[in-house]
From TrEMBL, chains A, B:
Record keywords: DNA-binding, Transcription, Transcription regulation
PANTHER family: HTH-TYPE TRANSCRIPTIONAL REGULATOR RUTR, TETR-FAMILY REGULATORY PROTEIN
Cross-referenced SUPFAM superfamilies: Homeodomain-like, Tetracyclin repressor-like, C-terminal domain
Protein name stated in the entry: TetR/AcrR family transcriptional regulator
Record domain HTH tetR-type: where: 10-70
Organism this protein belongs to: Streptomyces chiangmaiensis
DNA sequence: ACCTGAACACCGTTCAAGT
DNA sequence: ACCTGAACACCGTTCAAGT
């Protein structure tokens, strides 16, 4: 009774988000049912509509949570990393891959929901913050002279693509080998060669 | 009457696949309804179940079509490319990016459906054929001495990750700049540096 | 072999009404 | 402000029955 009352006091929205995340993690986004979610939380099936206008809105809010989380995770990883660009890149790569593996379906959702033309302003802002964080890591490398000069969009795109591609391929189990541990070091070396200054 | 009869003669399965592909392209995978599909094709709502045991089976078959198509598209692009590794890599990258842009939702489906634990044998075989085609492009580069030596899984993973990441990011409109045309050349140069032999 | 029609249990969404 | 209950139109899936 007490726990149920709490939903009447403002955290049904948060409960819906975490419940939805659990569902997509365990059974995929297609298995998400608003009515089942409401049932599990002990509210009526119409209650969620007070917090999310429809299912799509809930999914967008979830994607936003994902972008915020990966951005924050990356920040934490970089705080603990050393000063060398190679070390910071490795730490960032590790964080991204770990996130992708632990949140595979959420990561899918984050990037697939942008196909929807009605993507909210908030969502694209969060996505942009994440992209910019990756780019600013490259900018660090440029300042240290370990990354070639040039417009960040050009120089950073390769690095971002490689990390994103590797993380999503690992998450979808699409790489020919698991490469436990050593695979990432190899990847970081490849990236460093790709973006190193000439000569 | 004639057109309807054809569905009674063996191509309802193909019609369901192309219809489903049109739907996910235009309205996303969440909007796919078997009943609506059947209605549009002039058959009863129960007819699709003769060809696909459930919705998931249809989506898996669609993903399989996607893997076959990108593999075939890539083959065609490489036939028309020159002999130099740089040229062939550029042609492959162009083909992948074009496919990703033209089939954004299908590409999503191809990689997200693998999260489902019941993914068919056929599907994972098609996915593996596609991965192996990418890898054999790298192997070409190795034979020409333009790609560093080493196990293909290690050397090729970086290249594959970069191409896959770039293609999916472009498809989901997640890159800071459109980089029309020139962006891909820059990316190919980055990849070539990353996988070039030492010294 | 392939499809139909009815049936079942479940959805998402809306809206008057309650507290 | 937030939630309920009923209502509506729509699903996916199954299965006896038709051809």
């Amino acid at each position: 009774m007490q726990t149920r009352r709490r939903y009447h006091h403002g955290d049904l929205r948060a409960a819906l988000l975490t419940g939805a995340e659990d569902t997509i993690r365990e059974k995929g986004p297609a298995a998400l049912s608003l009515r089942e979610l409401a049932r599990d939380l002990g509210v009526s099936h119409a209650a969620p509509s007070r917090h999310f206008k429809d299912k799509q809105a809930l999914l967008e809010a979830l994607a936003l949570v994902g972008f915020d989380r990966i951005t924050q995770t990356m920040t934490a990883a970089l705080v603990g990393a050393g000063e060398s660009f190679a070390g910071r890149l490795a730490a960032g790569a590790r964080a991204y891959v770990d996130f992708a593996v632990a949140n595979a379906e959420l990561l899918d959702l984050m990037y697939s929901i942008k196909h929807a033309p009605e993507a909210s302003e908030e969502l694209s802002a969060a996505s942009q913050r994440w992209t910019e964080q990756m780019m600013s890591l490259i900018a660090e490398g440029q300042r240290r002279g370990e990354v070639r000069e040039g417009p960040l969009e050009r120089v950073g795109t390769g690095v971002f693509s490689t990390l994103h591609g590797y993380a999503t391929l690992v998450a979808s189990d699409s790489l020919p080998e698991e490469m436990p541990g050593g695979g990432l070091d190899e990847l970081v070396a490849y990236i460093l060669r790709g973006c190193a200054p000439d000569k």
